[in-house]
Amino acid sequence: MTWIILIIAGLLEVTWAIGLKYTAGFTKLMPTLWTLTAMLGSIGMLGLALRTLPLGTAYAIWTGIGTVGTVIYGIVALDEPASAMRLACIAMIIGGIIGLKLTNA
Asked: Where is the chain membrane-spanning (predicted)?
């Protein structure tokens, strides 16, 4: 269950990172409320996961999910570049996430 909580926390990190783009410097009410809610949920769930997972592992996986999800969103929805090097770097982050999970099962 802890790993599911951590994955959800990472997905909420993706949500708030993307949400920041749409808050216009926190001047738009609904995107700001959505972003702040996702931030609180993400950090709260990370805190729950840290009850049983090592700090370094949980934090690296949390930020990794956030990084990969945000980059993929940028490529798919915002027409950001999807160069071979960029995709290779994303693959390395995913490999690191999987490796950390496997070593802390």
From this structure: 33-50, 57-78, 84-103
pTM of the full predicted structure? 0.89
Question: Within a 10 A sphere around the Cβ of 36, how many other Cβ atoms?
Answer: 14
Q: Structural domain boundaries of the chain?
A: 2-103
Query: Long-range contacts: 64-68, Cβ < 8 Å, 24+?
Result: 64/10, 64/93, 64/94, 64/96, 64/97, 65/7, 65/10, 65/11, 65/13, 65/14, 65/97, 66/10, 66/13, 66/14, 66/17, 67/93, 68/93, 68/94, 68/97
